[in-house]
Amino acid sequence: MSFVGSSRDIALYLATLMLMLPVAGMADSKPASTWRNTLTAAYAWQGESDLDGGGNVRVDRGVAQFETSKRVGKQWFAGFSIGYGEDRYRFNGTSDAFSPWQDIRTLQFGLPLRYVVNKTWVLFGLPVLRYSAENGASLGDGREYGVIAGASYRFSDRLSIGPGLGGFKGVGNEDDLFPVLFIRWRMTDTLSLETGRGLAATRGPGLALKWKPLVQWEFGLAARYEKSRFRLADDAANIGQDKAVPIIATAAWQLKPALSLTALAGVEASGVLRVEDNTGAFIAEQSYSTAPIVGLVASVQF
After folding, report:
1. Residue 93: left if φ>0, alpha if ψ -120 to 50, beta else—which one?
2. What is the DSSP letter of 69?
3. With CB atoms counted within 10 Å of each terminal CB, which end of the chain scores lower, N or C?
4. Is-contact 7 276, C-beta < 8 A?
5. Domain containing 264: what range?
6. Residue 136 to residue 208: CA distance in whole angstroms
7. Confidence of residue 27 (pLDDT cuts 50, 70, 90)
8. Based on the structure, what is the number of domains in the chain?
9. Cα–Cα–Cα angle for 196, 200, 202, rounded to 5 degrees
10. 109 found inside a domain
């Protein structure tokens, strides 16, 4: 499962925690002519990890997201998503030279679009507006916006692949461009490789390997690069950043056709925390050791 979080430079935050980029999902799904709604709630615990400058950090992440989509005419599919998440950081024993943050809130809106050119080509885009700030700071001061767009070519019933590009104007006037590979490769009747996805709060690419041995069960392994940025609540209106590479194993259980539960476990590797001034200039940075991650995602369609 991938989480809703804050503005990420390339990626997502419980990024892996949900698996499959929203635009990629629309490229392969077939919404009915009526609205198709999905409500998702997720929680993830990131265990304690040591900071290289001394002390440690742990994080609790939670998110709720609503998505809806509909077929418009013969070739267009359109949708809307809104998500809210909180990341609660808890630092212990950090040095005075590094001023951390605590509770980060994120609100995100998305407008996924898909256009079916013909039987082989599909074009899609996802404009995003996101606000991310520490509790005590205005969400409006943590605004970022951007778009992920691309194309997918259908080689066969088992393979669709194509290039994409993401571009964001982030907190602190950060400009971020990153490539994305959109892929859906059904290697066997039960094994597939797909573009990874984050839930509402993140941006960037990832990959997920999925195995579905039974109708009600699906197992996966996902990885991606993540970076989140957010406005801090200090007097200087500084900027915080958290980047890492989450690697997550998942087990999804389809209780009913419209209800599913996903358990996840893995690690947050190569983590780096950074503080910048209100213009994006460097102030301080510390890396943190690999941390364990466990979580649960519930999703219902209606």
Report:
1. left
2. E
3. C
4. no
5. 7-301
6. 36
7. very low
8. 1
9. 65
10. yes
Query: Residue 34: how many CB atoms within 10 A of its CB?
Result: 8
Q: In this structure, is residue 276 part of a structural domain?
A: yes
User: Which tens digits make up the pLDDT trace of 111-121?
Assistant: 999 999 999 99
**Residues β-bridged to residue 4:** none
Instruction: Give yes or no for a contact between 142 and 133, defined as CB atoms under 8 angstroms apart.
Output: yes
R_g over Cα of the chain: 19
DSSP state of 120: S
Helix (H) or strand (E) holding 179: strand 174-186
Whether 21 and 183 have beta carbons less than 8 Å apart is answered as: no
Residue 51 maps to a domain = yes
> With bands split at pLDDT 50, 70 and 90, how would you rate the model's confidence at 175?
confident
This prediction's pTM? 0.84
Measured distance CA(90)–CA(133) in Å, rounded:
16
Structure tokens at 119: 């039987």
Q: Are strands 259-276 and 239-256 parallel, antiparallel or unpaired?
A: antiparallel
CA distance 80 to 69: 6
Q: Which secondary structure element, helix H or strand E, spans residue 241, and what is its range?
A: strand 239-256
Cα separation, 255 vs 261, in Å, equals 7
Q: Which two tokens stand for residue 264?
A: 């996840």
pLDDT of residue 202: 41
CA 46 to chain centre: 16
